[in-house]
Specification:
mainly alpha, 6 helices, globular, about 170 residues, single chain
């Protein structure tokens, strides 16, 4: 909710705000995932990483949907957002089966080899985060190039002759 409020407040001043929030929350999740999965001997460090992950890193969805809803043609906007949620859900269903197949392939047992299992899960979560950072940035650049209808521009951003005034 906090990221949505920040986006609504500052998006008129810097159109990369949504992309920066997506990048920032994704970058915060990397050390949190390392705390969660690599610290197999201290429960409290792992739990702290999970708390920070849930508190700060789950806010990328609202700005991403905002970018998607802005750059997609209004006639297919609902379909685009539905496809976005569909692929997130499908990934959430398929990923555990893929992890299980890899675990069986490499013969990892989470109970017998918690350190190696933690490294595997950490890589499985950190690598997508690293791949998402440039994607969010590129999406933000494309989003900042989308023309905005004059009716959506706040009055404080317009001069008398109709040209934009910087923030």
């Amino acid at each position: 909710m906090g990221t949505g409020i920040i986006c609504d407040r500052y998006d008129n001043y810097n159109y990369m705000t949504k992309a920066y929030i997506c990048v920032g929350t994704t970058l915060v999740s990397i050390p949190c995932c390392c705390m969660i999965y690599l610290c197999t001997t201290n429960f409290y460090i792992s739990l702290s990483g999970l708390f920070i992950e849930y508190l700060l890193s789950t806010g990328w969805g609202q700005p991403a949907i905002g970018i998607l809803a802005t750059v997609v043609d209004p006639s297919v906007r609902g379909t685009a957002v539905s496809i976005f949620f569909f692929f997130i859900t499908i990934f959430g269903v398929v990923a555990p089966h893929a992890y299980l197949a890899l675990l069986n392939h490499f013969g990892l047992d989470p109970i017998e080899e918690p350190k190696e299992f933690g490294i595997f899960i950490c890589l499985a979560t950190v690598i997508p985060c690293l791949l998402a950072v440039p994607c969010f940035y590129i999406a933000g650049v494309k989003y900042s190039c989308v023309p905005i209808p004059r009716s959506h521009v706040p009055a404080r951003c317009l001069e008398r002759n109709g040209t934009m005034v910087p923030g």
